[in-house]
Design the sequence.
């Protein structure tokens, strides 16, 4: 997790630093954050907005927003129907997720209670993401199964 | 001389104490060490996670209340859910028994010309023996939960409700994969084994025509599913194929998404002992996100079917002494905390589908055969599991009740046969044995008393 300033350029720089040389980077258009945040990033080389099946199969990095974060469980909430976030948060090895600190709640139950979330939460298709995909079925704990092997959270503040 | 047992599958259904004894022997010889190690780590994690929950007791009370209430209102909730699913653009089917559920799913697959499908872990699909039926239709069925993937390779049934391959050590998995997949790839660490399975399964996910999942909870007012997992196989099963079929018992239905809330943290803490598992999905299918054409089959639209299953649950709901079992959220805390389960696992202490102390009632209810609850003998009544249960089920109490019924089983079975004759002429015919052993238990018991003198001859 890292804290990032609320500026589109800061988001771009942080994502590029985290992705290092890995390309392509897939991006899902934000639905809750201002689209401005991902705009400078989109014009970078190797950043794809309209991936085809082959891009999805091979892209090592995916960037999405989260519409909320949960402090107690260390989770981010991603709307999987917002643009292509369902795939971008799932298929690449590294998932970078951007969330505004104003959207932080204490517990998962708050999302079903608080006025600012309750109504829309009722209609969203979303997932609480609390870490990379993991398993203990093969003996020891292994990180990186069918979903991302690494989750990186960027908190805008 | 009992015949040599080579696979737990042969002794999955324990109709008698003799079979139970053989299952115990096999479990002690081959599975005990891995089960002991794995249940211990489940327990340590659960103690830590539940202690960290600021309102653990209040959450349990709330969860219990929601479940009690939902069971009382089941008819209205089922009706409401069917309307919601239809309104969302999905298809709803209520299956009275395993046969109807299988047939419906097989028909949907036929209509869609499904050749291969991926599955998320679902005990309910084990309960209705879905895989075999689909395979007989020529469909390639791929279990994608890694533990289920192991069991599919080994042709075994689950030995635990959330960690179905808990009886496998890393070494045994390596040996199994070598034998089954004939590969020279390195398979000597958890990482290597996971990579091997992941690469195989990623192809299967993207090539699948359909995905089948269960559900941890279902909301009646908007047709949403709660799906809890760590591996991301369920997320992929829901999103990659155009056709999604979800199967769930009616006891999973709650009024709205709001009632998911207390279960989210409670289930994660009680099951794997985490604040939350990696992925907790709240979805109302069909998803809006377009289908990506991974299969090269051209554009496709999403279709969703929800199959809600009775299969003995209604009879159980009407059984005053046993209905509590329907509150179970299948977290496995009672299995892991049980001393007998810790040394035997679910192949010794369990039936063909459900395992542990809570499994005995489930096995009997869903098969309609009281005798398949014989493994309730292994519950010592110590009650260590009771404070661990997030919905406060008196599991030893259920087993005491089952045993008292089992011990009258000769006159009961006679009475049951007599009642079956009576019932078979009525519209209840379909409900068969389950009705007799559960809903009509009191009546059956009276018949049993009537026939008691005769029972000496059997
Ligand atoms: S009976 Fe209770 S502790 Fe056991 S699996 Fe069900 S919910 Fe969990």
Sequence:
């Amino acid at each position: 997790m890292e804290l990032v300033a609320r500026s589109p350029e800061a988001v771009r720089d942080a994502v590029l630093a985290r992705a290092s040389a890995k390309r392509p980077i897939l991006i899902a258009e934000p639905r809750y954050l201002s689209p401005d945040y991902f705009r400078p990033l989109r014009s970078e080389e190797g950043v794809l907005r309209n991936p085809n099946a082959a891009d999805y199969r091979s892209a090592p990095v995916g960037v999405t927003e989260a519409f909320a974060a949960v402090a107690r469980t260390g989770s981010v909430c991603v709307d999987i129907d917002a643009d292509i976030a369902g795939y971008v948060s799932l298929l690449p090895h590294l998932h970078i997720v951007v969330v505004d600190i104003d959207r932080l709640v204490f517990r998962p139950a708050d999302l079903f209670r608080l006025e600012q979330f309750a109504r829309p939460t009722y209609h969203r298709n979303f997932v609480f993401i609390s870490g990379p995909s993991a398993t203990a079925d093969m003996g020891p704990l292994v990180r990186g199964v069918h979903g991302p092997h690494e989750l990186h959270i960027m908190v805008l503040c | 001389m009992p015949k040599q047992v080579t696979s737990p599958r042969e002794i999955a259904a324990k109709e008698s104490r003799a079979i139970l004894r053989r299952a115990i022997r096999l479990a002690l010889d081959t599975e005990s060490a891995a089960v002991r190690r794995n249940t211990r780590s489940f327990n340590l994690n659960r103690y830590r996670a539940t202690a960290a929950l600021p309102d653990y007791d209040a959450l349990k009370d709330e969860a219990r209340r929601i479940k009690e209430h939902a069971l009382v209102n089941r008819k209205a909730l089922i009706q409401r859910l069917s309307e919601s699913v239809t309104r969302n653009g999905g298809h709803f089917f209520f299956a009275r028994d395993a046969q109807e559920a299988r047939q419906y799913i097989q028909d949907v697959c036929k209509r869609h010309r499904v050749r291969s499908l991926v599955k998320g872990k679902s005990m309910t699909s084990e309960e209705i023996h879905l895989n075999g039926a689909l395979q007989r239709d020529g469909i390639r069925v791929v279990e994608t939960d890694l533990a289920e993937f192991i069991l599919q390779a080994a042709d075994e049934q689950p030995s635990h409700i959330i960690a179905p391959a808990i009886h496998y050590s890393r070494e045994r998995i390596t040996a199994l994969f070598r034998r089954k997949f004939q590969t020279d790839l390195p398979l000597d660490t958890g990482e290597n084994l996971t990579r091997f399975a992941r690469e195989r399964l990623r192809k299967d996910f993207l090539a699948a025509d359909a995905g089948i999942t269960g559900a941890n909870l279902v909301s009646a007012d908007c047709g949403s599913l709660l799906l809890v997992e760590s591996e991301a196989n369920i997320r992929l099963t829901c999103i990659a194929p155009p056709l999604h079929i979800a199967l769930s018992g009616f006891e999973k239905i709650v009024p709205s998404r709001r009632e998911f809330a207390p279960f989210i943290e409670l289930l994660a803490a009680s099951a794997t002992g985490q604040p939350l598992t990696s992925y907790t999905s709240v979805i109302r299918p069909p998803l809006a996100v377009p289908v990506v054409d991974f299969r090269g089959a051209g554009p496709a639209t999403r279709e969703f079917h929800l199959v809600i299953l009775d299969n003995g649950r209604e009879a159980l709901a009407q059984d005053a002494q046993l209905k509590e079992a329907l509150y179970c959220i299948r977290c496995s805390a009672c299995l892991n905390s049980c001393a007998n389960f810790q040394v035997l696992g679910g192949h010794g202490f369990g039936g063909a589908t459900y395992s542990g102390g809570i499994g005995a009632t489930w096995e009997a209810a869903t098969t309609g055969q009281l005798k398949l609850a014989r493994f309730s003998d292994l519950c010592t009544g110590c009650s260590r599991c009771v404070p661990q249960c997030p919905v406060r089920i008196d599991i030893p109490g259920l087993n005491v009740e089952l045993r008292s019924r089992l011990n009258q089983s000769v006159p009961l079975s006679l009475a049951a046969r007599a009642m079956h004759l009576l019932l078979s002429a009525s519209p209840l015919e379909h409900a068969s044995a389950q009705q007799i052993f559960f809903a009509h238990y009191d009546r059956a018991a009276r018949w049993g008393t009537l026939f008691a003198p005769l029972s000496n001859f059997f």
Summary: Helices of chain A lie at 8-19, 39-42, 53-58, 85-88, 115-121.
